[in-house]
Amino acid sequence: MKTIVTSTVSLLIGLAIGCYIGYRYYKKHITSGEIYVRQQTESAKADNRWAQFNLWNAYYHGTHGVDKDRAKADKWLNLFVRNVYVVRFEPANGFHPQNALDYLNDISQRTPQVSSAQNGVGTGSFFRTKKEGDKLVASFLTDAPDQLQGYIESNPNLKFISVETMTPQSFIDYEKSAQESL
Question: What CATH number should be reported for the domain whose range is 83-176?
């Protein structure tokens, strides 16, 4: 019996030491950036568009403990912008939004179907406004341009302007653009 107890205690001490050594190795050699990339990559490979965006953002801007890497950023951005479009529209019929919130409140009230998807761009993501003369023109990124165009055309306060294919460079420019107000 004494041998079994001694063996069990020795085994438990050995496991504890092994776990501690493994933990120390892990903490020393696995960075939070590597963990982030591993988690996001798993989702991105399952076609989660937000994970593709997150990986581009991490590699492009050097966020989440990830070193900047232009080649990896380009890889993920090319996947993210695949089949993504920018849909532009302006106010109509006396609607005169002064800022992004005015637009978003109207869209939420009249066309609540416009939204980003849990794992994708959806009918409307990355909303932007830009001052053009005395009016505020707006845009969404979408992976359903015909559907978004239909929603815009069904809203009496909005006038559809255009749909354009998003490219990696046009996305970078769009992402950098600021919300403008009148």
Answer: 3.30.70
